[in-house]
Amino acid sequence: MRKILVLGILIAGTLSAQTQNGTTLYVALKSAAVKSGTGIIASTVATLALGDSVTLLQDKGKWMEVRTAANRTGWITSVSLTSKRVVNSTRTATAEDLALAGKGFSSDIETQYGKDSKVNFTLIDQLEKQNISNTDVYNFIVEGQLRGER
After folding, report:
1. Does residue 149 form part of some domain?
2. What sections of 2-150 are H helices per DSSP?
3. What is residue 150's DSSP assignment?
4. Are the C-beta atoms of 67 and 34 separated by less than 8 Å?
5. 69 Cβ contact list (under 8 Å, min separation 6)
6. Disulfide check for 46: which of 30, 72, 81, 83 has CB 3.0–4.6 Å away?
7. Which helix (H) or strand (E) element contains residue 25?
8. CA separation for the pair 27, 10 (Å, rounded)
9. CATH value at residue 98
10. Model pTM?
11. Is residue 18 in some structural domain?
């Protein structure tokens, strides 16, 4: 229950509205990648930890251009940031925890659902453990002639 409360607080503080340039923001996840562009296949220019501060340069909704304390500039997903100062502790939320909480789902609920039904999560667990490179994702997109958001 405490984990859900912590997640709720983090999600409530997560940025969803437009934020002014020059604002100091904080990383709300255990780890967050700063990318060279707005997309999952963009190269990573920096990796930030929970509570690290950044300065907002540009807000594009789902993506924000930021400058890190090490003076690196790049793009980070807006759900990775919060306007509330984050204190790093031994109890942290992962990106997976935040995504589940945003859907009203938690690992406790998943466990209970698995016990109460005949659902087998083995294949889902195997899929989640796979690590697909950005190059493979890019090749899949190009070869499949997929088009992203415009």
Report:
1. no
2. 2-13, 95-102, 107-116, 122-129, 134-143
3. -
4. no
5. 52, 53, 54
6. 72
7. strand 24-27
8. 10
9. 2.30.30.40
10. 0.54
11. yes
